[in-house]
TrEMBL record:
<dbReference type="InterPro" id="IPR036291">
    <property type="entry name" value="NAD(P)-bd_dom_sf"/>
</dbReference>
<dbReference type="InterPro" id="IPR020904">
    <property type="entry name" value="Sc_DH/Rdtase_CS"/>
</dbReference>
<comment type="similarity">
    <text>Belongs to the short-chain dehydrogenases/reductases (SDR) family.</text>
</comment>
<dbReference type="InterPro" id="IPR057326">
    <property type="entry name" value="KR_dom"/>
</dbReference>
<keyword id="KW-0560">Oxidoreductase</keyword>
<dbReference type="GO" id="GO:0016491">
    <property type="term" value="F:oxidoreductase activity"/>
</dbReference>
<dbReference type="Pfam" id="PF00106">
    <property type="entry name" value="adh_short"/>
</dbReference>
<protein>
    <submittedName>
        <fullName>SDR family oxidoreductase</fullName>
        <ecNumber>1.-.-.-</ecNumber>
    </submittedName>
</protein>
<feature type="domain" description="Ketoreductase">
    <location>
        <begin position="8"/>
        <end position="188"/>
    </location>
</feature>
<dbReference type="InterPro" id="IPR002347">
    <property type="entry name" value="SDR_fam"/>
</dbReference>
Length: 250
C-alpha cells in the first residue's frame, strides 16, 4: 500500500477489535500516526505492538467512548501527544436485537449511547482542532441497517439511521471549511459484533452471518477508508457501501 497518509495523525475509536483494529492497522501502513481508543487496554497494547512491528507509530488510549469526558479526553490526549488530529474514525458500535414487544428501554439507550452519542462526543472535541488546523477528515462506521429497518433490528437500525443522518448534516456544515465528513456502511464483515448480543437466537444468526464464506475482512474496510482519505481535498466520498460480492440484496 502506498504511504499516502504520511504526516497525518488519526484517532480510531473502537480500536480493540474488528473494523476499528483493521482500520488502525491499514492507516498505519499508509503512513499515519495512530491513536487507539477502546475499553480493552490489553487489546490496544497488542495492536500498538503490531503497528510498531511494521515500522508505524501508535498510542493506546484506553477509555469508554460512551462516557463524554473519556471520549473528549481521547481526542485531547491525541492532540497533546502528536500536536494535531487530522483524521477521526468513529468505529465503536454495538448490535442488539429486539422489537417493541417486551421492549427493554435500557438496552435501547445503550445502543444509542454507543452508536450515536459516542460519535457525537468525539466530534465535539475533534472539530475545533480541525477547524483551527484548516482541514480534517471524519469517517463514521455505520451499517447497511441504516438504510432499512427490521423487526429484530429495531434499536440497531434506528441508531444507524440516526448516525447516517447526523453525519450527512455534519458534512454539509463543515464541507465549506475543508473538513470532510463521510460514513461507511459495511455489510457482513468478519468481526466480534455478535458477541455482545443478549438474545441467543439473534446472536447465533449474526455470528453465522459475519462468518459466512466471502464475508468482508476488517482490513478490507480499512483499505476502503484509506482510499477515501487519499482522495484530493476537493473530493469528498461522502457515503460508501462495502459488502460481500455474494450479497445480492437491494
Amino acid at each position: 500500500m502506498a504511504q499516502t497518509l504520511v504526516g497525518k495523525v488519526a484517532l480510531v475509536t473502537g480500536a480493540s477489535s474488528g473494523i476499528g483494529a483493521g482500520t488502525a492497522l491499514e492507516l498505519a501502513k499508509a503512513g499515519a500516526t495512530v491513536a487507539l481508543s477502546a475499553r480493552r487496554a490489553d487489546r490496544l497494547a497488542e495492536l500498538v505492538a503490531q503497528i510498531e512491528a511494521i515500522g508505524g507509530k501508535a498510542l493506546a488510549l484506553p477509555g469508554d467512548a460512551t462516557v463524554e469526558a473519556e471520549a473528549i479526553k481521547a481526542v485531547e490526549d491525541t492532540v497533546a501527544a502528536f500536536g494535531r488530529i487530522d483524521i477521526l474514525i468513529n468505529s465503536a458500535g454495538v448490535m442488539q436485537a429486539g422489537g417493541i414487544q417486551g421492549v427493554d428501554i435500557a438496552e435501547y439507550r445503550r445502543v444509542f449511547d454507543i452508536n450515536v452519542f459516542a460519535t457525537l462526543y468525539s466530534w465535539s472535541a475533534a472539530v475545533p482542532h480541525m477547524l483551527e488546523q484548516g482541514e480534517g477528515d471524519i469517517i463514521n462506521i455505520t451499517s447497511l441497517a441504516g438504510r432499512k429497518g427490521g423487526p429484530e433490528t429495531n434499536a440497531y437500525s434506528a441508531s444507524k439511521h440516526a448516525a447516517n443522518s447526523m453525519t450527512d448534516a455534519m458534512r454539509q456544515e463543515l464541507g465549506g471549511k475543508n473538513v470532510r465528513v463521510a460514513y461507511l456502511m459495511p455489510g457482513a464483515t468478519s468481526t466480534e459484533v455478535a458477541s455482545g448480543i443478549s438474545n441467543p437466537n439473534w446472536r447465533n444468526a449474526i455470528a453465522a452471518h459475519v462468518a459466512k464464506d466471502g464475508a468482508v475482512q476488517p482490513s478490507e474496510i480499512g483499505e476502503a477508508i484509506v482510499f477515501m482519505l487519499s482522495m484530493p481535498r476537493h473530493v469528498n466520498i461522502s457515503e460508501i457501501t462495502v459488502r460481500p460480492t455474494i450479497d445480492t440484496t437491494a
